Structure to design on (82 residues):
């Protein structure tokens, strides 16, 4: 299944929002631009694969898996910039 980048980013955002009920609305809104900036570095196919791996993980803590993915992607981006 092929999707465009906006669809892939929206899927990532939606999944993160669904799993992040413990975060405040302000925190989530503040994170959206970061999620989009990081996710935009990947092809829609790559992003979809990364998200599917998190969602299908045997890890019962899918939120931690998704947060770890986002943090790792953000760190990669930060090191590339510096």
């Amino acid at each position: 299944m092929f999707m465009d980048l906006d669809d892939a980013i929206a899927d990532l955002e939606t999944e993160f929002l669904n799993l992040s009920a413990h975060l405040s609305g302000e925190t989530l809104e503040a994170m959206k631009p970061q999620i989009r900036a990081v996710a935009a570095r990947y092809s829609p196919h790559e992003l979809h694969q990364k998200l599917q791996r998190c969602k299908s993980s045997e890890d019962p803590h899918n939120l931690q898996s998704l947060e770890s993915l986002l943090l790792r992607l953000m760190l990669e981006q930060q090191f590339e910039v510096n």
